[in-house]
Inverse folding.
């Protein structure tokens, strides 16, 4: 079983603040890293699929970077809004078949 | 285009009964993943299937659990002789192509074993 860690476990920020969190994964045999957003009572929703070292992806106010050599990815949210409140999950695969999920970072944006 | 459908949404079984969980992938998706979320834990990979093939079942318990994805119809996760420890939320996700494409998750089936 491969270890995927996310930090912090939870985060409270004020509306308008920018924030970021980390996903750490094994740096050997990298295949792909996925980021998902999971709102309470809904299903996980895909944000990014990252495959190349140095990848940077952006969707609106959310962006992510990838460092496969040192085994981490950052997710950034610029100007947090209450609707950004959710759990953010990363999932690592080294084979393309089995995905290892972190336990997520729970973000609460306070109006 | 309807999303990933799972049914039932809630399932209650007594110990020793069988549980059948169904997952209909998004139209055009031929890759299905099953995950389990135990109480207070994260998502754990169980099995990855393509139409009529199990590609990777390394996350599935060796006994009592099986999965299939027939040519026609939904993917089925079957748990025989359920025990209390099987109580969990079971999610499936589908993808048009594996690994390098995002997965689309269903709403999950919450299994309670009494």
């Amino acid at each position: 079983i491969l270890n995927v860690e996310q930090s912090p476990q939870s985060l409270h920020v004020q509306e308008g603040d920018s924030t970021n969190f980390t996903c750490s994964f094994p740096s050997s045999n990298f295949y792909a890293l996925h980021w998902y957003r999971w709102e309470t009572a809904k299903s996980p929703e895909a944000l990014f699929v990252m495959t190349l070292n140095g990848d940077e992806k952006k969707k609106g106010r959310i962006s992510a970077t990838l460092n496969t050599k040192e085994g981490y990815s950052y997710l950034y949210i610029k100007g947090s809004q209450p609707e950004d409140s959710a759990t953010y999950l990363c999932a690592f695969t080294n084979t393309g078949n089995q995905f290892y999920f972190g336990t997520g970072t729970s973000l609460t944006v306070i109006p | 285009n309807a999303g990933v459908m799972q049914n039932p949404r809630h399932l209650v079984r007594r110990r020793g009964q069988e549980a059948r969980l169904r997952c209909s992938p998004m139209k055009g998706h031929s890759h299905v993943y099953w995950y389990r979320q135990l109480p207070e834990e994260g998502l754990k990979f169980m099995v990855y299937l393509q139409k009529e093939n199990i590609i990777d079942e390394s996350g599935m318990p060796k006994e009592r659990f099986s999965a299939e994805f027939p040519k026609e119809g939904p993917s089925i996760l079957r748990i025989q002789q359920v025990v209390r420890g099987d109580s969990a939320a079971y999610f499936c996700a589908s993808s048009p192509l594996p690994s390098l494409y995002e997965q689309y998750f269903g709403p999950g089936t919450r299994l309670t074993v009494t």
Notes: The interface with chain A takes residues 3-4, 33, 35, 41-45, 48, 55-56, 58-59, 91, 93, 98-108 of chain B (CB under 8 Å). The longest strand of chain B covers residues 43-50. Chain B has a mean pLDDT of 93.
